[in-house]
Specification:
With about 150 residues, this protein is mainly alpha-helical. The protein is built from 9 helices and no strands. The protein is elongated.
Length: about 150
């Protein structure tokens, strides 16, 4: 593919959904595009506003929180894996109210509690803690909600 074809393809993709630099670099690497062309294309996409890491982080955090019910730790790990700088996503994560997470975790654990088979309260508590930890919640958040249940 030529540089113009790559640019056209990526601008079309970016205009339909939010993407970060890392996503676009991975696409171009799969297409076996040379690194100098990758740099040029990424610079163009950023300068023209097709890629904005802050905008991407904000929409990613909102989607993972509201639709996937992920905790802060899991969201942080996913953003780290996408190579988003911490100084970009930290302020956005700090905006999230802990009460929102508390209510979300409480409803998640109540639903999970109904479906878990456990022979003792100790076993049930362990299974609920593991479930919530996999969702990215901190132990302090989890123990506070489990004590309420």
């Amino acid at each position: 593919m030529t540089e113009q074809q790559i640019l056209l393809k990526l601008t079309t993709i970016c205009s339909k959904a939010e993407y970060c630099k890392y996503d676009m670099v991975r696409k171009m690497t799969r297409w076996e595009v040379s690194e100098d062309i990758q740099d040029k294309v990424i610079k163009y996409l950023v300068s023209e506003g097709y890629i904005d890491e802050t905008r991407y982080a904000r929409s990613f955090i909102r989607a993972k929180k509201e639709y996937n019910h992920w905790g802060i730790k899991k969201i942080e790990n996913a953003l780290f894996a996408k190579r988003i700088p911490k100084d970009i996503y930290s302020p956005i994560l700090n905006e999230i109210c802990n009460n929102d997470y508390h209510d979300m975790l409480k409803s998640l654990l109540q639903n999970k509690k109904r479906s878990v088979k456990a022979s003792s309260d100790y076993e049930l508590r362990g299974k609920l803690i593991r479930f919530a930890m996999q969702r990215g919640f901190t132990y302090d958040q989890i123990s506070e909600v489990i004590d309420e249940l």
